[in-house]
Amino acid sequence: MNIRVLLVDDHSIIREGLRSLLEKQPGMEVVADTDDGRKAFDLVRELLPDIIIMDITMPGLNGIEATRRIVDEFPAVKVIALSIHSKRRYVADMLSAGAAGYVLKECLFDELVQAIKAVAAGGRYLSPRIADVVVSDYVKRLSTTPESPFEALKTREREVLQLVAEGKSTKQIALDLHLSTKTIEANRRQIMEKLNIHSVAELTKYAVREGLTTLET
């Protein structure tokens, strides 16, 4: 039986290249690809792939939050992060969200194939540059520190925070999330109260610091 793969990356050239290479691998099938974390969630519901290759920094819904939502609702679907980021914070956040693997984009294609096979078999995979002991220690320290204001935010509030930081209006966010503008306004007020932040500019800086988005997005 083929390993069914979903590709999620906001760069079309990466998706096209990976699709071309993976489809040449015996026992692997790319069932779909998308440039958006929210679309990925819908595709998972529709197609139930075995493996998702997930970028981290994407507009709309970043890879960390997309992974958290997907793993929560579809625990049988395994996520492998494919990212340029090697900092411990990104690795720890992605693994905490439920990713079963983490591969750096600088790796050779053969390493990604190895990661897919390992995760599909029920294991985990980290690129050699990602020191396992460092990641384990960092995740452990995160779990023992007092809850930060960011951790107090609900999943929906994190989504709204990212979209606000990306410059979207209340109406645009409401359309993206299929909610009313009143609900989005209430969410934004709750976010500001929890974070003790009182302007969109400060919210944007905070979202960048927490890795929800980047200034380049």
Account of the 3D structure:
The chain has two domains: 3-144, Rossmann fold, CATH 3.40.50.2300; 150-209, Winged helix-like DNA-binding domain superfamily/Winged helix DNA-binding domain (Arc Repressor Mutant, subunit A, Orthogonal Bundle), CATH 1.10.10.10. Helix 3 (63-73) runs parallel beside helix 4 (88-97), helix 4 (88-97) crosses helix 6 and helix 8 packs across helix 9 (181-195). The chain is globular, with a radius of gyration of 17 Å. The longest helix has 15 residues, at 181-195. Strand 4 (78-83), helix 4 and strand 5 form a beta-alpha-beta unit. It is 52% helix and 13% strand. The termini are far apart. The protein has a six-stranded parallel sheet with strand order 2-1-3-4-5-6, sandwiched between helices. The model has no long low-confidence stretch (mean pLDDT 89). With 217 residues, it is of the alpha/beta class. It has helices at 12-22, 37-47, 63-73, 88-97, 109-120, 132-144, 155-165, 170-177, 181-195, 200-209, and strands at residues 3-8, 28-34, 51-54, 78-83, 101-104, 125-126. The chain is built from ten helices and six strands.
Blueprint of the fold:
Layout: E1 3-8, H1 12-22, E2 28-34, H2 37-47, E3 51-54, H3 63-73, E4 78-83, H4 88-97, E5 101-104, H5 109-120, E6 125-126, H6 132-144, H7 155-165, H8 170-177, H9 181-195, H10 200-209
Parallel strand pairs: 1-2, 1-3, 3-4, 4-5, 5-6
Helix pairs in contact: 2-3, 3-4, 4-6, 7-9, 7-10, 8-9
Percent of residues in β-strands: 5-15%
Number of H/I helices: 10
| Strand order of the biggest β-sheet | 2-1-3-4-5-6
CATH superfamily of the largest domain: Response regulator
Which CATH top level class of the largest domain fits? Alpha Beta
Shape: globular
Cα(first) to Cα(last) distance is 38 Å
Mean pLDDT: 89
Query: How many β strands by DSSP?
Result: 6
CATH topology of the largest domain: Rossmann fold
Helix content: 40-55%
